[in-house]
Amino acid sequence: MFNHSLLAKIDALLNELENFIDDAMALYGEFMEIVAFAANAKSRLLGVYGALFGCFEQVRHLFDFDKTHYAVSPLVTQENFKQKSTRAVRDLITMIDLGLRQTAARKDLTTRTKFDEVLRTIRQIKAIPTDLVSGKNIKSEKEQAALKSLTASFSKSDTESVHLMMQLAVSITLLRIATELVEDETLLPQEIDYITTKVRSQIVENLQLLREQTDKEHSGANITVLTTPNTGFYAAAHKTAEQLRNKVHKFTQLALAAINRKPPLMVREVPFSGTVQQIAHAFYGDYKRAGELLRLNPQIRCPNYISRGEWLNSYVK
């Protein structure tokens, strides 16, 4: 059983992740300032907004969300660029969060399978910006026309800011889902370790993407500002990176605590031929722990007959 202290830490981390959305939006706000004051502001903002529009449409289609509830206009001007972009990005983050959490809430899947399905969906989300540039997943003529009207030269650099925000949304939601899954006492130590490794890998990838975009803005690879560098952008990027490192560190500590709450594993010899329920009773004095033995021993193909002399993973107590 999880003690009160560990549950309190889980709740605290979940609350921090809710607040992290504001930090992500602050970072995007600073990026929009750079775009708005660029020497080629008009063409640049059309490209950036076109990328945002395209990614928004693809994410909404991926999760089959209602078009009237989540809508973004393909029309934008220099005057309303910031307002429209901010709203669209916040809705985009919300769609990613809701979509992934719906996947994680499926009742027909085991905890490990739920997590793997979330990872599969994340891979689809990550591919959207690249596919958008190539036109791979743009099947709607209306969407193609809208994108064409936004920019005549849609490029990879136009997708970088929205790609970063999508990655941040994925990281936040994956951390939240993983934190909630760790509460599942049926998870095996190796499953918790697997989840932790995947979460850390996502955060490392996100940090690398954030670093690359910060370096590009610093070197002027994306846009040329009129006066001095936007120190607000660098400050927001640094804060976001530190927040990500802090959150994944806290999650790792929670995962280790969850693993350490479980008894040590050992290998036991089956004393007689019988069902997994009979073996559970022989090992633990409790036939109800048969499911636990099955999770610890995925090699078992016939739970109704386990031969004497086989070796099975089990908890010490």
List the helices and strands and how they pair.
Layout: H1 4-36, H2 41-63, H3 81-104, H4 111-134, H5 141-150, H6 156-182, H7 189-219, H8 231-260, E1 265-269, H9 276-284, H10 290-296, E2 311-315
Antiparallel strand pairs: 1-2
Helix pairs in contact: 1-3, 1-6, 1-8, 2-3, 2-4, 2-5, 2-6, 3-4, 3-6, 4-6, 6-7, 6-8, 7-8, 9-10
Describe the structure.
- The protein has 317 residues and is mainly alpha-helical.
- The chain folds into two domains: 257 residues, no CATH class; 51 residues, Membrane-bound Lytic Murein Transglycosylase D, Chain A (Roll), CATH 3.10.350.
- The chain is 69% helix and 3% strand.
- Helix 1 packs antiparallel against helix 8 and helix 3 packs antiparallel against helix 4.
- The longest helix is centred in the first third of the chain and has 33 residues.
- It is elongated, with a radius of gyration of 24 Å.
| Rg calculated over all Cα atoms | 24 Å
- The strand count comes to 2
Gross geometry: elongated
N-end to C-end Cα span = 14 Å
Major sheet description: 2 strands, antiparallel
| Contiguous helical run count | 10
How many domains would you count in the coordinates? 2
Mean pLDDT over the residues? 84
Report the helical percentage.
55-70%
Q: Strand sequence of the main sheet, in spatial order?
A: 1-2
Percentage of residues in DSSP E strands: under 5%
Helix/strand order, N-terminal first: HHHHHHHHEHHE
Pairing-aware structural class of the strands and helices?
mainly alpha
Low-confidence stretches: 221-227
Name a few traits of the molecule.
Membrane-bound Lytic Murein Transglycosylase D, Chain A; elongated; Mu-like prophage DNA circulation protein
